[in-house]
Amino acid sequence: MREDFLLLNPGPVPLARDVRQAMSEPMVSHRSAEFESVYEDAQNGLDYVFERSSLDGTPTTESDGTSLIFNGTATMAMEAAVANLAGADDEVVSVVNGKFGRRFKRIADRYANVTPVAFDWGQSIDPEAVAEAVTDDTKVVTMVHNETSTGLLNPVAEVGEIAAEHDAYFVVDGVTSLGGDEFLIDEWNVDVAVTDAQKALAAPPGTSAMYATPRAQEAFDGESAPFYEDLEWHLRKADSHQTPFTSAVPLFRGLALAVGHIEDEGMPERIARHRRQSSAFRAAFTTMGLSMFPERNDASEYSNTLTAVSLPASVRENPTDFFDAVTERGASISGGQAHLGGEIFRVSNMGNLSDEQILRGVRTIGEAFLEVGADVDVEAGMAAAREQLR
Ligand code: PLP
Asked: How many domains is the chain built from?
């Protein structure tokens, strides 16, 4: 793989050199003091991300919650959250407007009675519809903050207020926002937040993390969850900087360094950079003559970490040619998922990308469109991106 290959998929994302190197260090036992110190570093870095993802760096929670790290990607953390909070007699409301909202619902279906509040993928959530579905009988509300399948930033604050009014536990997937965008735990009434190493944290794929507030921790029933996801057990072991079962040592080492880099950059600076870079992508592609895919309402924003753009009609006839033309230029982007395949392309700015890499992404995508005969103005797009990056 060429060193300058430009990975612009929404996870996994490019890794810093020292993060890559850390994964090839000699092995240690997951019950050793060396490993405990790696876990502690990773946990401290995650505490920083979960508790300081505000525009001005002020704490986002007074709750003194706990960051947990799992062997397993975000789907496992999502399942752990639901399975420890809800059982067969409980009511869960799942808000769905994309693939990952649907995944949360599918997970919850296995453990509890679910009322979905569903919208077409790419359509904004209407908080009033959520308010109609959540009742005093609702135990848990699940939703995705940044819907990676469609590029929409969903109204977590509004839904969190509804959950709090009914005393429901609010479980939020911040997989592609945490580490790249604002995430206000107390203000949004979040009880459990979930994220993934391989997204905006810019760590290797394979681990995920959860922030559990004390209120959520008190409600966890580990014995009713899958054995591997017993969060009471995870919490007990986390106190001594270990996991209940064998830890993925190299991945934890990579994660510990990656979250350390986030602390070095500072969350306010990191959020500002992600916002600047995503606005450069949006400006570039719309100025080129393309259309954004998601439909925003007043309660929603475009994602600050992932840009989803409709493919022009001519490209939809043979989208593979377009994606191949991108790859031939030394870059990789993603298409649409499930029924959105062949309809959209998705490009990520998660992690540690430089402004130069963003501009290279714009040019690469623009040139790939020209190669397959699409009518785009690459230079106008580049100028619009530069303007946003200034
Ligand atoms: N949630 C969101 C918003 C995601 O973007 C993803 C992955 O892309 C996931 C959850 C699930 O991650 P994984 O499939 O790696 O478990």
From this structure: 2
